[in-house]
Amino acid sequence: ELITCKDKQRKRLEKEYLLLLPKLGYTHHIHHYTVEGILSVEKNDKTTIEDDLKGLAKKTNQKKTVFVIHSPPWNTNLDMVYPDGAHIGSKAVREFIERKQPLLTLHGHAHESFEITGQFNEVIGKTISINPGSEYDKDKLNAVIFDVYNLKHIRHIKVEG
Fold first, then answer.
1. Taking the domains of the chain in order of start, what are their residue ranges?
2. Which DSSP category does 3 fall into?
3. DSSP summary character for residue 135
4. Under a CB-based contact definition with an 8 Å cutoff, are residues 112 and 120 in contact?
């Protein structure tokens, strides 16, 4: 389960925060919205990640929102890849974070960024953005543990086996 907390804590979370998770719908009475991953843009596609983010911004109070967005923000410690440390993040995601300043954003896609930079988070304005990285080729799960009410103590952990 993604969210495990006591009843009182869950009710507080439900009341005060909106947690956005890709493709999960509605869990624990918390609304979830989809922000798709990297998709090939076909000739007739009518939406972009920028359009999707604008739509979500209209529905939420960003100061109390956690966005889970597959692509990390561009030109950060969270979007670097081998072999040369190139930045592969999304400029639209970066601009969205800079403009809207959500509480927290969680990302993936650039799995090796943590290995390259040694950093799993970056602050953009007042927003904390996180990409825990992944070492699935080494049978390790990288994860973060945090309290949405106290983001000063975010822990990065590796689980082996």
1. 7-160
2. -
3. B
4. no
Q: Burial, 50: exposed, middle or buried (Cβ in 10 Å; 0-12, 13-18, 19+)?
A: middle
Structure tokens at 73: 């923000």
Structural fold of domain 7-160:
Transcription Regulator spoIIAA (3.30.750)
19-34 pLDDT, tens per residue?
444 443 433 333 344 4
Alpha helices, DSSP H, located in 73-128: 91-100, 113-117
List C-alpha distances in Å: 150 to 70, 104, 155.
23, 11, 12
- Tokens standing for residue 23: 């493709």
Residue 43's Cα: distance from chain center in Å?
Answer: 28
The one-letter amino acid at 159: V
Question: What type of residue is 156?
Answer: H
Q: Which residue has the tokens 């809207």?
A: 100
**The pair of three-digit structure tokens given for residue 11, joined into one six-digit string:** 């009710």
Provide DSSP, 5-56: --HHHHHHHHHH-EE--TT--EETTEE--------PPPTT----HHHHHHHH
State yes or no: pLDDT of 35 exceeds 70.
no
